[in-house]
Amino acid sequence: AVLVTGSKGQIGTELVEYLRGQYPKVIATDIRGGDHYLDVSAKDTTLLERLVVENDVGCVVHLAAVLSAAAERDAAAALRVNNGGTEMVLEVARRHALRVFVPSSIAVYGAGTPKRARENSPARPSTIYGVSKVYGEMLGEYYHERHGLDFRSLRIPGVISSKAMPGGGTTDWAVEIFYDAIRRSRYSCFLSPTTSLPMVYIDDLIKGIATFIQVPRSRLARSTYNVGAFSVSPANLAEAIRAELPFDCDYRISALRQAIADTWPESLDDSAARRDWDWNPTFDLRATTTTMIELLSNRLASAERAIS
Ligand code: VAH
């Protein structure tokens, strides 16, 4: 069985659904509910260990985290959830010899990193979220070296998806823009038009995570890999949307989130993931735009009908 923390989040919502097509049992936990209430920031391993033992869990997918902008607003809470939660999950995994997947992020890279980041590019973040993600990677690799724990991590770019909103991220604009394009044909973007960041469409990401957690360890040359798909700026994405809908984008820059985005790389070199475990994203900017507009139009239209 696989246990997922943060199962109600942007990635968790769609990953749980996908994994349920592959595994006999997927235990979904979240502080907001799901199958089981689980607050990973509490230092109490009792509930997690009970779920692991009772359900014969072999792999934990630990998604619960406070994202970049929210983490700058409440550093103490973010460190409690991100660092404390990962500490707790790694310790339970060590005791029960579980495989562990903990997502990392392009946020581990800082201003001094080349704009096309490789795995061995400097990872000197200047955000609390980035610091907590480097910590997660380092602690997981320590558990791998010191205790033989099968720890795996992916440095994930911004995620574009339609079923659950991201919460408090710097790349949330790339999701919000589609909701506003459909609802009101306009969007006020909190990043500047030329801020180009690496992104991935959710279908590619969840297939990639599902592949990465089950590939034999012998194929992995490292615990942590970059994964990317395409890079896009608000101006590029606005143009791609305008090719399908009447749409206008203006800019009300958030100083906090622009400062965060400015430290991140524009693209990721993910050749190692493609070579070692066949990472192979298929959604480019156009396919992502077309699919998002189709899925959201249907969902928002049926939601309108439901309340009318
Ligand atoms: C964030 N969506 O914006 C997350 C992610 C690379 C961005 O880490 O914080």
From TrEMBL:
Domain (NAD-dependent epimerase/dehydratase): residue spans on this chain: 2-228
Pfam families, per database record: Epimerase
UniProt xrefs under SUPFAM superfamilies: NAD(P)-binding Rossmann-fold domains
InterPro entries tied to this protein: Epimerase_deHydtase (IPR001509), NAD(P)-bd_dom_sf (IPR036291), NAD(P)_epim/dehydratase (IPR051225)
Coiled coil spans: none
One of the record's GO molecular function terms: L-threonine 3-dehydrogenase activity
GO biological process, one term: L-threonine catabolic process
Family: Belongs to the NAD(P)-dependent epimerase/dehydratase family.
Protein name: NAD-dependent epimerase/dehydratase domain-containing protein
Taxonomic classification: Eukaryota, Sar, Stramenopiles, Ochrophyta, Pelagophyceae
